Structures are given as structure tokens and as C-alpha cells.
Amino acid sequence: MLNGKNAPFVPPRHREAAYRSMGGTGSREGIGAGFMYKGGITADNVNFRFPRYVLVVVLQGRGSYVDDRGENYPLGPGSCFQRFPQKSHSNYIDPDSEWSEFYLEAGPLLYQALSAMLIIRAGSPVSSMPLDDELKWHIWDFVQALKTANEDMLPELVSQGIGLLGECHRRMHAPPEAKDRLLVFEEACRILGSDFDQDCDLNKFCRKYGVGYEYFRKMFKERCGISPWQYRIRRRLDTACGMLGSPGIPVAEIAARLGYSSPYEFSAQFKRYIGTSPVHFRQGKRG
Q: What confidence tens digit (pLDDT) does each residue in 62-89 have?
């Protein structure tokens, strides 16, 4: 198999996989990935409870997935299904369909963290995604890196694995008009995350891009997990946290630069969302 991002990717007809454990004795944490060929197999897993999170992407073949409630989902090329930690499921394969897949795997605590950050979006256990050779090569290279990396390289590979999981989930949740929507979303994030001392007119923004406000608000929340205004608050407070790291900038000046009507309004919102006052945050205190 030639290793080049522009070369066609041919799925291997064997198991090519790696999992690297991390942490102390008894840890179930780690990261993994692999390619599997399962021609001739009928029942892949039946009432299976896996301790870790796994995202499986079907490259070729046909089969089905049955969730813990008994609901049956058909599977084919481009289908994705998720094995959630300790959640029962089954999946079956047409033995004559030359089934092959790739998968990405994460420990249970890493899964919880990625779910909280909406990098992994649980939703339906079965979805679909567009596939291209570039993504398959990235997964292949990641598997090879996991197999040969020394222990000092594992944190960097965890970051790479998170990026690949994020890319797959973005593809899984992208609608047909994703390209245009992505441009609108990215521009909205840029505007909402800057010029905090200026008014941000989202109705004007929506008119400019030819979308209704309610449609935009719903689309934004689906992608980001929070409303546009909550996102603006988050970004403004993230900026405030960075500015509070500079002791030479008074709290009142930070409030003014970020568009608050008064230091009191800034302190009240900061404490409501961050959990401590700006002064205590600067001093490294809680409460």
C-alpha cells in the first residue's frame, strides 16, 4: 500500500489496529484506532457492552445495528455507528458483502470529556458521513503512529485522535447544505467573538446572508451547543480571563474595553458564569 494523501486508499484485507493505554495501574484510559476486514462474518457483536467508546465507520459491506431498545438500523458504506461505554448493542454483517471498516476509540473518561465539549455528539447511535481518501489516509497514518510511538509522544497522539473524532462527528452531523451553512456559522463566530465594545446586530447579519433569524439561531445552537448570545458571553468572558492575567490592567478598564456599562455589571456576569469575582480570579481564589 502506497502511503500518499493523493493516492487511492485501498482498505486492507486484514486487521491493522493499535490501542495505547495511558495512566497508572488499573487505568482504562487511552486512545486507539484501526482498520478491520470482516468478510465471512455474520454476527459481529451480540448484546455487547464495551468498556470504552468506539466510533465505527463502514468502508464497504452491508449489515445492521441493533440498539439497547431493540431498534434496528441498516448499515452500508459511509454508515457510522457508536459503541457507547457499557451500553448494550448488537451488530450483524452480511457475510458475502466483503465488510471492512475503520474505527476510533477512546477511554471512558476521555469520552465523557469529549461529550461535555460536544466534540463527540451522542445523538442517534447510527448516522452516515461522506468519505474520501484523504480522511482514510489520516486514519491509517494515525494507526501507524500509535503502533510505534514512544510514551512521550502519546499526549500529542491523543490530541490527534481527538481531532479525527471531531472531524468524523462534524461530517456525521453536517446537512447537505453544510458548506454554505459552515461559512455563515464561521462568520457569525468571528463577529460574535470580537468587538465587544460595539453593538452586535444579528438581525442585520441574518439579512446580509439571506437567512431567517430563527433558522440561524437554531442552526447555531445545533453546531455550537449554545445560543449565539451565550456564545458571545462565553467569548467575552474568555477574553476577560486573559486580560485579568495582566495585573497592570484595572478591572474597571477591562469592563470598559469589553463593552460593559459598569464594573459592577462586568463583575456580576463574571461571577455568575465563572464562579468567582474578577478580583478573586486574578488572585487565584475561589468564591
A: 999 999 889 999 999 999 999 999 899 9
Which triple of cell numbers denotes residue 164? 479525527
Residue 249: alpha-carbon gap to chain centroid: 35
- Predicted TM-score (pTM) of this structure: 0.69
CATH 1.10.10.60 in the chain, residues?
Answer: 178-283
Q: What is the mean pLDDT of residues 184-193?
A: 89
Residue span(s) of the chain under CATH 2.60.120.280 come to 16-172
What is the band of 1 on the pLDDT scale with cuts at 50, 70, 90?
very low
Q: Is the dihedral of CA 242, 246, 252, 253 positive or negative?
A: negative
Place of cell 458571545: 232
Q: Would you say the C-alpha torsion 144, 145, 149, 155 has a positive or negative sign?
A: negative
Task: Return d(Cα 166, Cα 239) in angstroms, integer.
Answer: 24
Q: Would you state the pLDDT for residue 212?
A: 85
